[in-house]
Amino acid sequence: MTTLEIKGDWNITKGKLKQKWAKLTDDDLQFVEGKQEELLGRIQKRTGETREIVEKALKEFRSSCCS
User: Fold this and answer.
1) CA dist 62 to 6, 14, 39, Å?
2) pLDDT tens digit string along 3-17?
3) What is the model's pTM?
4) Which of 31, 46, 57, 60 is the most buried (most CB within 10 A)?
5) How many CB atoms lie within 10 A of CB 50?
C-alpha cells in the first residue's frame, strides 16, 4: 500500500473506518506522511484485527469513495 493510496480522500476513508470500528478515535486515525506503518499498527491495536484485514478495509474504502 503506497502513501498516495492511503492519503487519497483521507477524510472519507477516515469516516468509513470509524463507522466500521467505532473504537477508533481521531488521534488513532491521524495520518502523517511516512507514518503509514504506525497508522496500520494503531488500527490493529485498537480493533484487534490482523494487518491483512486492516489493509483490505483501507483499500475497499478507498476504492468505493474514489471510483
Assistant:
1) 8, 10, 15
2) 556 566 777 788 888
3) 0.62
4) 57
5) 10
**Residue holding cell 476504492?**
63
**Contacts with 41 (C-beta within 8 Å, 6 or more apart), sequence order:** none
CA 67, CA 50: separation in Å to the nearest integer? 26
Distance CA 33, CA 7 (A): 8
Report how far apart, in Å, the C-alpha atoms of 50 and of each of 2, 11, 26, 33 are.
Answer: 18, 23, 20, 22
CB neighbours of residue 59 within 10 Å: 14
